[in-house]
Amino acid sequence: MTIRAATNEDTRVTRHRSxxxxxxIKVVEPIRxxxxxxxxxxxxxxxxNTFLLHSEHVYIDLLTDSGTSAMSDRQWAGMMLGDxxxxxxxxxxxxxxxxxTYYGFPELIPTHQGRGAEHLLSTILIKPGDHVPGxxxxxxxxxxxxxxxxxxxxxxxxxxxxxxxxxPFKGDVDLxxxxxxxxxxxxxxxxxxxxxxxxxxxxxxxxxxxxxxQVADFCRMHxxxxxxxxxxxxxxxxFIQQREPGMRHVTVAxxxxxxxxxxxxxxxxxKKDSLVNIGGWLALRDRGLAEQARxxxxxxxxxxxxxxxxxxxxxxxxxxxxxxxxEDYIRSRIGQVHYLGQQLxxxxxxxxxxxxxxxxxxxxxxxxxxxxxxxxxxQALASxxxxxxxxxxxxxxxxxxxxxxxxxxxxxxxxELVRLTIPRRVYTQAHMDVVAESVAEVFDxxxxxxxxxxxxxxxxxxxxxxxxxxxxxxAASVVTxxxxxxxxxxxGEIGVRLQ
Length: 499
Ligand code: F0G
Description:
Bound molecules: ligand F0G
């Protein structure tokens, strides 16, 4: 057998080239590893709810990508340009300009964060008894719709509910489902369709531009508004660029604009795409509606030129908007999420596929079939991961879904997930390696994770402040499988190896 020597040419073709983050680190914030026995105590004290942990007890914090971004040197410089006038701050005009330039909406109402915008929007558009269709619910968005008297209806395509479906645009709206709703309730009872891009609870999944346009056409025909949840629309635009036919050479900034053209208005949490620690906005095309929103913002948030934000926050958000659509940035942002996801897939851990934009979602129902949904497998898995490694994740399953306001019963969503959410520009690939190893460790010992039950259940958005306790050890399984060693291996003890 002859072995052909590789020519320079061959080497160039086959050599793997790595990519790296398009920034270097100027300021660091030390983080500290704790011991497993400390973490066991901390999670018990936190009622097995990762929201109730002190962040200083967390090693790698993947609770959320919301408000956790590292700002750039330019954004920090912008903070020094804060014009803290009560009215008419120049930073407001900079923000208005950025929203017009990159999102294309003429009317801007700043709010302290996304849910502030959702509150204003739901109050001006919804009448009690109305119906709001959307591509899967989001917790705060639906809570505001329900508080205003509407019923939310999920019109996302079926594939979104299947964590194993490889559909490239699981955020798409099912036009058939939407049209059935319009027939059933009448267009006059549907003030708007709530379209999220990307869809957080489906796993950070994108919607196609073509689908968004179909929704817009359908709604225009029926006199129904389209409101975009633009929280992660830049990430959605990147998926459109990568996956939608004909979009490969269109810039992310141009795609974002095209997406917004389909909508009559948008709510925004600047704490995600826009790379700031606080801030949001409501944007509208209609002047009259914007005036109504301005009438309310002064009651709930602050004057219409600051909406609960300091001038410096608005400046940082204006700069962050421009940075968020830079191609290098967005490629590495989603590249890092996929780097972690690919490792977990390689290890055989069940995750939502395809990988989404802001997080890797572990399929807790698949990982922990021995825990019934009534004992909150995703909540239990998030606790176990924390005890194992100090990595903090978030439940996105039965606890987040809450109770049906009509029946009072627990909603049981099709997806029972744990979200490993990647903050923007904060962690390196080495952190991602540690996370993957930690998840793999819990995965190997998954059958020792125990279910949970409520000890305290808040009425609204219960996942934030609920407390739990471990359910009594289930039927003999632990003992039979692990013998006398069992006690040191179940949840609460997982992680001993890392001490
Ligand atoms: N819409 C989406 C899709 C969101 O993900 C969020 C927040 C909001 C609206 C509300 O924005 O937090 O600024 O009031 N999501 C955070 C998360 C909390 O962790 O996913 P907010």
